[in-house]
Amino acid sequence: MKKDRRRLIAAAMGKIPCDLTVKNVQYVNVFTGEIYPAEVDVIDGFVARVRYPEEAQELESKETADGEGHYLIPGFIDAHVHIESSMMIPEQFGRAVVPWGTTTVCTDPHEIANVLGIDGVKFMLENGRKSLLRQYVLAPSCVPAVPGLEHSGAEFGEEEIGEILDMDGVVGIAELMDYVGVYSGSERMYRIMEKGLEKNGFLQGHGPLLSGKELSAYAAAGVESDHESETAEEIREKLRRGMHINLRASSLVNHMDQLAEGIRQIPYHDFISVCTDDVHAGDLLALGHVNKVVRYSIEHGMDPVDVIRMATLNGAREYGFKDLGALAPGYAADMQLVKALDGGRPERVWIGGKLAAENGVYVGETAEETPDFSNTMNVGWMKKASDFSLTAETENGTVPVNVIVPLDSTNVLRKVERQELPVKDHRVCLDGREDLAFVCVCNRHGLENRTVAVIQNFGLREGAVGTTVSHDSHNAVIVYKKEKDALALLRELERTGGGLCVVKDGQVTGSVALPVAGLMSLKSCREVAGEFEQYRQAFYQVCGESTPLLSCAIMSLTALPGIVVTDCGLVDGGKQEFVDVFAE
Amino acid sequence: MKKDRRRLIAAAMGKIPCDLTVKNVQYVNVFTGEIYPAEVDVIDGFVARVRYPEEAQELESKETADGEGHYLIPGFIDAHVHIESSMMIPEQFGRAVVPWGTTTVCTDPHEIANVLGIDGVKFMLENGRKSLLRQYVLAPSCVPAVPGLEHSGAEFGEEEIGEILDMDGVVGIAELMDYVGVYSGSERMYRIMEKGLEKNGFLQGHGPLLSGKELSAYAAAGVESDHESETAEEIREKLRRGMHINLRASSLVNHMDQLAEGIRQIPYHDFISVCTDDVHAGDLLALGHVNKVVRYSIEHGMDPVDVIRMATLNGAREYGFKDLGALAPGYAADMQLVKALDGGRPERVWIGGKLAAENGVYVGETAEETPDFSNTMNVGWMKKASDFSLTAETENGTVPVNVIVPLDSTNVLRKVERQELPVKDHRVCLDGREDLAFVCVCNRHGLENRTVAVIQNFGLREGAVGTTVSHDSHNAVIVYKKEKDALALLRELERTGGGLCVVKDGQVTGSVALPVAGLMSLKSCREVAGEFEQYRQAFYQVCGESTPLLSCAIMSLTALPGIVVTDCGLVDGGKQEFVDVFAE
C-alpha cells in the first residue's frame, strides 16, 4: 500500500499532528496476544503510533474518538469469499459486511468469470474500488470448471490468468478446485499454477477430504491454503503439510465443532485464518460475516484473542499483506471498537482511519452510478413451449428414460434409473406421474445448446422453478411440469437479465432480478434479502418442503459425485462422463 | 527457488522414484509443533512427501538413510550475520557452520562493502555460491557508517543500493544502523529505505535501546526486524510494534537470560527468530553457530520445539522464504538429524537433499580456486618511521595534548584529558610515561590521510599492535610506543594484504593474514582459529591482560558514545564532531 513514510515518521515523532486519535481503549495486540490500555494515533489512513495512556502526545490530533474503555481490535479479513453468492455487487457487499467489522476481503470472482470472462473480473475489481471495504481479487482457476462437459461464458488458460494477475488488486490464483487435475498432472492446471508462481502470486487451495499422497502432491504443487476441511483430522493433516487453514462457516457449510476440536490438538495456530466462502444476504443481515465465524469459534471453546488473531493478522500473513491485520506503526488503520471479544457487532469500524460504520450502519458514501453491463441472457433462440419438450424417436407408446433419482433423502446427490415413460406425438409425457418433472438446462452464453431430462422426487407439485445462478457455468436451469410454464419462466429471466424465478399457472409468482451477469442484484443487502424471502415463499407454494431452495443452482454442478445436467447432456460427476437421457 | 513441480507432484504421487528417503526418525513438525515418527521422501533437492511409517511408498527411493530413531529437524537459519567477523570467506564460513546444522544464512557484507564497495558485495555473493550453505545477502545500508567523520573505501547511496538489490541472491537492506537518521528524517536513509521498499525488499533493523516514539517512527519507516535487544522489556516493546525479533548470542554479546525472560512474558513467538551477528572462528569451532543460540535458549528454560521453530520456520517467514525453514512438500530438503532437541551438534546435515556434513565434518566439495581480489593496502605513502610521529609546532619544550583516556575499567569507551607532554625536535615524546602510547589511524583506501594521537592506559608495554579490521571503515589502526615498530607493523600488513599483527623489538611476533580486503583469510576455520590464538599470545606478550584483544578494531568506531580516532582526526562519537589532537 502506497504511503508517505516521511509523514508517517514525522507523525510518530510528534512533529506533525495526526488526523485521528482513538483514546481510552483496551488495545488488543495481535502480535503478542496482550491486551492493555492504549491510544492509537492515525495519519493518512495508517497507524503512526500506539501510545500507552501515560505517554504524552506532542501535538494534538485533529480529531479524537473516545473508546469508552471498550476493546480496539483490527478489522477482520475474509481469506476466501465469493461475493456473487451474496447476490450483491461488490459495492453493496461492502456496505453489508463492513458494519460487522470486516475491512478486507480476498474474493474469488469465479461465478461472474464463468459468465463474462475477464470483463467480469474487471467489473468486480472496479466496482469493489467504490467500496470502503478493501477488496482483493484472486484469478479464478477453473473457468470453466470441467471443460468438455458443459459450456460456460468464458475459458481461462494461462494467458487469461496472466492477464488477470497483472491487474491492480489481484493477489493470486483462486481456489484450485480441480485438485484431481493438480495431483494427477493436468497440463492445464499445471500451466495456470506456473503462471501464478511466476507472477509471485498466492495459490489458493480447495482440497476437500484430500489426504495421503494426493494431499502431499497438492501441497508440493505450490498450493498454500485450504478452506474445505470438515474434520479435526483433515485440519491436522493439512497444517502438518504447511498449508494455511481457512476456518470456514458459510451459509452452506458449518463444521465448527470439528474444526475447533482439530485446532485444540495443535499447539500453533499462526497458519489458521478465517473465511466465509459463500454467504447469503439474509444470513449477512441476521448473523454477520467474518464475525460470525469468530463467534462460532469462541462458542466452541476457542480462545477469543487467538481467534481474533486468526481473523486479522493470520489472514494478512497468509497473503503476505505487510500492512494489514494489525494496529501498529505503518499498518493500515482498519480497526473496530467492540464491547466484548465475542464476535458481536462492533460499535464502530474504521477503514484507513475513516469511520466506515457505526452501530451497524455503514457511513461510507453511496456509489450512485449504475455499473455498466449488458444483459447476459442469450436465450432468445428458445422460442416456443415445445422447445422444452423431451422429444423421442418413438411417435407414440413408451420409451426407456434415464430418470434422475435422488440417492438419499437429502435430495442433493442423484443417480439415474431406467424407467419406461409414455410418449405422445414424439413427446415424453409425465401425465399421472406426480413424482416426475422435466428439467431443462439451457445455454445462455451464445450457444443454442439445451438438455431436457426427467427428474424424480424433486418435489415440484406444479408450475416451474428456475434460475441463472447455476454453478459453475450459470446456464439457465428450469424444473417444470408443463412446457408453457418453463417458457414463461425463461422469458421472465430474460426480461430481468437473469435471477431466480417461480411460475405458477403461467404467472410469475416470485422473482429475484439479478441483472448483473444473471448473478447479482444492484440492490442493497436488505432489499436482496427481502426479495429472496418472497421468492422463497413462492418457491414453497409449488415445491414440497423437502426440496432445497437452491436445488436448481447445483443441478449442473459437475464437481458433485453423482448425476447432474449441463447444457451438453446428463453428466456423471464422479466419472466425469456423459450419460444418455434415454436408456438402452 | 526454481523447482520442477511436475516432477515433485509425480514423486509425491509415487509415480517416479525419489532420490532419498530418510527413514526411522522422530519428525519435528515446525508448523504444528508436533513430533511423530515419519519417513521423508526427497527429490531434486526438495521434500516430495512426509509419510507416516505405515504409509507405503509406491516406488523405492534411489537412496535410503536410517535415522536410527533420532530427531529430524529443519536446517537452521541465521537471520543476521556478518561473515567477515569470522575472518573467513563465505565458502570457508559455510564449511564451518554447516556441520552445526546451519543451512541458510542472511548476511550483511557491511565490512567488505566499506572496503571494496559493490565489488566486495559481488565477491561475497559469488564466493557464497560455491558453498552448500544457502547464503542470502542484504545490501549494507550504512556505507560509510558516518559520512564526513571518516573515509572508507566506498559510499552507497540509493543508486548503489538499487544496483545491489537487483543482484541475484540479495533479499533486502541490511541492518539500518543509522536509526537516528531514520527517525529524525535523514534524506540519505529515507532514500535508501524507499529503494528497498520499491524493490520489495526486506528492511532489517538495528535499534539498540529504542523505545517510545523513536521506536514507533523506526517501525513506521518500514523497518521489520531487530536483533539488538538486551532486556525483556526491549523485546516486548519491539514485538508489540510488529517487529521480528532476532534472538542473538554472538561472540561479543549474550543477553539470553533477559531475552528468555522477555519471551516468557509473551504468548506468541512466531515473530521471533535467531541470529549470530558476529562469530569468531574459535567460537565457531568450540561452541557452534545458530545451534549455540538454540542451546542457550533451551538452557534458559525455553521450550525446545519452540526454539527450533524460531531457528527455522520463523526465520524463513521473516524473510518471506516460502520453501525454507520446514520439511514439508515443496520445501527444500535442508534437514538435520539430531540425537536430542538441545542445540547439540547434529549427526548428519543435508542441504537440498545432499549430505553436507556428518558427525561434525563438512562433506561438500572443496572450491579449490583462489578468489580473485587485489591487495587493498594502499599505504605505500607511509614511507618512514617519522610518518608515525606526532609533530608539534613547538620545537622543544612541552605542548598540551588531548590525551585519550579510558572512561572506566572496561577500557572500551574513552574521553580526552588535557595533558602537557614533552616535545623534542617538534616530535611529541612519551619517554618516561609507561602509561602512554601513540595511536595512528592511517587511510588505506586511496587517500593520504592519517591521524596520530596519544592514548593513556591502553595497556601496551612495548612494541606495537595493529589491524586492518577496524570498524566501520577498516583503515589501519596501530598502537605503538616507537615509530619504527609502527612502520614495521604497517609493512607487514601491507605484505599480507591486511590482517592482525604484533611487533616486538622491530620483529613481527604475531600475524593473521587477512588478504581478502584486509578482513578475511582464505584459510579454514581451524587454521584461522589457530593463527588467531598465536596472535593472541603475541598480543599479550606486549599488552597487559586488561587490554581487550580487539581494542584496535573498535578504536575508529564512530558509533561508540566516546572518543574514537579516524583517519580524519579525533571524533567524539556521542556528539558526532571532531576534537583536536592538541589541546588549547
From TrEMBL, chains A, B:
InterPro entries associated with the record: Adenine_deam, Adenine_deam_C, Amidohydro-rel, Metal-dep_hydrolase_composite, Metal_Hydrolase
Protein name, entry field: Adenine deaminase
Gene name of this polypeptide: ade
Catalytic activity: adenine + H2O + H(+) = hypoxanthine + NH4(+)
GO molecular function annotation: adenine deaminase activity
The species this protein was found in: Candidatus Lachnoclostridium stercorigallinarum
EC number assigned by the record: 3.5.4.2
UniProt KW Transcription keyword: no
Family assignment from sequence similarity: Belongs to the metallo-dependent hydrolases superfamily. Adenine deaminase family.
Annotated Adenine deaminase C-terminal domain residues: 414-576
Domain Amidohydrolase-related: 71-355
Keywords on record: Hydrolase, Manganese
Swiss-Prot/TrEMBL GO biological process terms: adenine catabolic process
Known cofactor(s): Mn(2+)
EC category: hydrolase
Pfam families the UniProt entry points to: Adenine_deam_C (PF13382), Amidohydro_1 (PF01979)
